[in-house]
């Protein structure tokens, strides 16, 4: 519905403006830079004329001379970097054995997760351990899992998920 409203507004605007563009020159001037100039006439009135301003900030003036109606638009793109965040979880991952001495059919993965944030609790967290290609979690080894404050365990073919509760 927004598209319909937009098209109606553009149609009403088009009915109000003069249809004949004879010759319009538009100059964009900034402090200390040579002006950007656009020349709009009957043969290029439907062509988008655009240019980048030389400086990101500053004062610019737009001056149009001639006979006709042109639409001038400026767009400013900016990026506000997100605030730096501290890590609130410490994750230690170790394989047993630590070194691969050849082809192995199985190995153990020891995963330790600790909350070290400023708040008293961390709410719920998800630890997801994805197996290396060709390996799957061994169901019987899940008995050895030592978890404190855990909500549930999920095991798929190649992923082991631990849902932890507070702290």
UniProtKB/TrEMBL annotation:
GO cellular-component term (any): extracellular region
Coiled-coil region list: none
Domain (Alpha-macroglobulin receptor-binding): residue spans on this chain: 121-145
InterPro entries in the record: A-macroglobulin_rcpt-bd, A-macroglobulin_rcpt-bd_sf, A2M/Complement_sys
Superkingdom to which the source organism belongs: Eukaryota
Gene3D superfamilies in the cross-refs: Alpha-macroglobulin, receptor-binding domain (2.60.40.690)
Any single Pfam family the record assigns to this protein: A2M_recep
Membrane-traversing stretches: none
Protein's UniProt name: A2MG protein
Source species of the chain: Horornis vulcanius
